[in-house]
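I have been asked to look over a protein record a colleague put together. Alongside the sequence sits a line of tokens, each denoting a local backbone shape. Please read both lines and tell me whether the tokens look consistent with the sequence. Take the sequence as given and treat only the tokens as open to question. I have pasted the whole thing underneath without changing anything:
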Amino acid sequence: MAKTEPSGGPEDPTIATFRALADAMPASVLLMTPDGQVEYANEQAIAFRGASLEEQRAWKTAELIHPDELAQAIEQWSHCVATGDRFEMEYRVRRADGAYRWFHVRGQPVRDAAGSIQRWCFLDVDIDDRKRGEALLAQTLAELAASKQRLRALIDTVPGFVWQAAPDGSVEFLNQRWFDYTGMQPEDALGSGWTSRIHPADAAPLGAYWHALLASGEQGSFEARLRAADDSYRWFLIRAVPLLDDSGKVLRWYGQNTDIEDRKQAELSLARVRSELAHVARVASLGALTASIAHEVNQPLAGIITNANTCMRMLNADPPNLVGARETVRRTLRDGNRASDVVKRLRALFAKADATAEPLDLNEATREVLALVSAELDRAGISLQLRLEDPLPPAWADRVQVQQVILNLLLNASEAMSALEHRSRRLCVTTSAEGTDRVRLAVSDSGDGVDPHDAERIFQAFHTTKPSGMGIGLSVSRSIIDSHGGALWVESSDMGGAQFAFTLPRAEARA
């Protein structure tokens, strides 16, 4: 097959079949003489090169192959001509418009019976699109690797710990800050090894919270202490956020641990200052309770003295009245215990102690405070009404601090009605459940109320409308309620005056 055009006679069916197959292939098919001269080219090859067979025979290799691959192609072809080995190489070939495209070129020698090479059959497959895709992929991978390095460097500069975990919570990645802080090695920290750095007191609650997040697939945060390389502990806020697929399934967990030790220390300092200020406010209220305290103590003391004199007379009688003396001694013990209870309540209310939250019966706490101020309310001509919901779910709070708030609200209400002359002085204390997670206490009076413009200002420190007031009672009271996770506010009362109310979280809501 030395020509692309028939010589005039009928063409061999085999050759015709070969031409048809070659022209149907989406590749260039070339037949060459043993020394490399083109003797046949299919339609794809002619169309790509834009030249007839005769024109292609005049071309030189240097005119077809890209200069960057030319030397290697010539070397490879020379080797194959000399050895008869199959030719295979990828290089760029010039198209008719001068543009180059990548081809995968295979050359197979065709031998006669004696083994001599009669011609070479070449198949040139256009792989330019694949090459461009590979180049683009390589560029993308390089950029991705560079971006990953930049991201890793950025993550390592974050002032905290950055981590990644599998859907089951097994940690797969920790940034360098973690290893700098803990002194751990990656093989010791990954998986669940990092948990060895949790403070023993925080390990169980943090573990339970983490497993709850894993089960729910929701984001969350938790505060815990983590041990440093020098065995000291610092507080951290641990945040976890899930990466979800379209169906809501967790693919990965990402998180950050932020050092909050300074904030924690500041909170402790603030709590100490708040406690000191609260104590000052409690002591300052002693003056307003003088009459009540005197009444509550004097009454049982008077009974003790009377009963003691009566007992002496009964024992000095002839014969001694032992039955009567025994009953008198019983009444004396009763009055002594009553006086002792008053002193205990005063000491508990005005002692200087750290706040301790615990389940609190708000009704009982209210009654104890009322026992201290009842004489003062009677002296001021105030009628008291109690509306205490029973049973009332226990609150989660510090008893002394909450009683201080109740005492402050009662004294404020009493003083707000002190100038009333032509209206009855009425005071109402109510307790109730609020929603599903709160309890509420309100103190309402029949005074002149609070100007709406002052509804927030009265809670500011040192703001007072009283000639002799310090202006810290309501400020301290709101601070106490806020620190318990509650709220304290003022509104108009249906009794014509003001109603101060506060809410506290229920004990079961904090369990």
Residues 155 and 175 are 7 Å apart (CA to CA). The domain at 270-510 is CATH 3.30.565.10 (Heat Shock Protein 90).
